[in-house]
Amino acid sequence: MVELKQKIINPLSKLSDRDTHQLAVEDLEKIINSLSNDGVSMLLNCLYDDGNDSKLAVKKESLCLLAILCATHSDPYATHLTKIIAHNVKKLMDSNSSLPAFQKFCPRVCKYMNSPKNDVK
User: Fold this and answer.
1) Where in this chain does the record put each TORTIFOLIA1/SINE1-2 N-terminal domain (predicted)?
2) pLDDT tens digits along 26-67
């Protein structure tokens, strides 16, 4: 798990730099797509911590990455759904928040919640 955390933190630290931003996003998307169910909570914790960065680009990408995670790993993230939504609402209330990133996230969560195979209450 320590190796996974380091694998996640390295590209997260590159999000705030314009020169490495796109490469970091691509690396994180690859990590999300190859992530096992056991690694979902580790990734979420790293994204929550990194989402507190003061730079708008980092906040925006944290929200977008959460949306990708929700779309890719719907079952394992379901147990974390309330915390994910609370985190994103907090980011939305932030005056520097990125509304478009939140708008990408919301439909994916709603689609999951309305899916007949999921009984989220």
Assistant:
1) 2-98
2) 999 999 889 887 888 888 888 877 656 667 777 777 777 877
In which residue are the tokens 């691509």 written?
Answer: 26
Q: Hey, where are the domains in the chain?
A: 2-114
Q: Which residues contact 8 (CB under 8 A, 6 or more apart)?
A: 28, 31, 42, 43, 46
Which amino acid, one-letter code, is at 79?
A: T
**Cβ(32)–Cβ(68) under 8 Å?**
yes
What burial letters (b/e) apply to 63-96, b meaning 16+ CB within 10 Å? Answer: bbbbbbbbbbbbebbbebbeebeebbeebbeeee
Q: Which residues contact 13 (CB under 8 A, 6 or more apart)?
A: 24
| C-alpha distances out from residue 13 to 24, 28, 46, Å | 8, 11, 11
pLDDT in tens, 79-105: 777 777 777 677 666 655 556 666 666
Q: How far is CA 53 from CA 24, 56, 74, in A?
A: 15, 8, 26
